[in-house]
Design a protein that fits this description.
elongated, disordered N terminus, Alpha-Beta Plaits, four-stranded antiparallel β-sheet, Arc Repressor Mutant, subunit A, alpha+beta
């Protein structure tokens, strides 16, 4: 009888194509989205403050500065002033919007929509209901600002109304029926001295 050693295992090199790797990444992303689906089959919308923020460089800040001064400036005019190409400005503005660093909208005076009464509302809630209440508040059309606070109030809201009857209906009919709300303090604004969305940007 002749004993022969088993042949050494053959090492085979498996090459994974780039297309396969891309497909794997797509499948992983789909699985992540499926895991976030709510019981009613909806995928929660991504909130603006959840997006990855990147630091703005000097050119970004200069562009933002020009748009703050005049939001109707064309990309061509901004490019001329900064001595760069129009394509550069267009791509930079698109990136600023996509990254959540700026929001370009037309902001009408609330009075145009018939909203002549504004109020700052302080709300105290059971802490376990803090996020549920704040999410409900952000869905109301009267509400323009919702902030989670530390101090006397747990949530601070800025809202606009057509008249005092509208305020009463909102406070008693909406806030008064929210589960978890324990107290509400409403302060009507008698006169708006400053109303601005402009933030000072360091151009250096």
């Amino acid at each position: 009888m002749e004993l022969r050693p088993n042949p050494a295992p053959v090492k085979s090199e498996v090459k994974v194509s780039r297309a396969y790797r891309v497909d794997v990444r797509i499948i992983r992303r789909l699985r992540e989205r499926i895991s976030n689906v709510t019981p009613d089959g909806k995928v929660p919308a991504q909130r603006s403050d959840d997006r990855l923020r990147r630091p703005a460089d000097a050119l970004d800040r200069r562009i933002i500065g020009f748009l703050q001064q005049d939001g109707r400036l064309s990309n061509t005019e901004i490019a001329r002033r900064l001595k760069v190409t129009e394509t550069t400005i267009r791509k930079r503005i698109n990136a600023l919007v996509d990254d959540g660093l700026v929001t370009i909208v037309g902001v009408p005076n609330p009075a145009v929509a018939g909203l002549t009464v504004s109020a700052i509302i302080g709300i105290r809630v059971h802490l376990a209901a803090l996020h549920d209440v704040s999410e409900q508040l952000r869905s109301y059309p009267e509400v323009r600002y919702v902030g989670l606070a530390a101090g006397r109030y747990d949530i601070i809201v800025e809202a606009f109304f057509t008249d005092q009857e509208h305020v009463l209906e909102f406070v008693s009919g909406r806030l008064g029926t929210l589960q978890g709300v324990t107290a509400v303090e409403n302060s009507l604004i008698l006169k708006v001295v400053k109303f601005s969305y402009e933030w000072q940007v360091d151009f250096d």
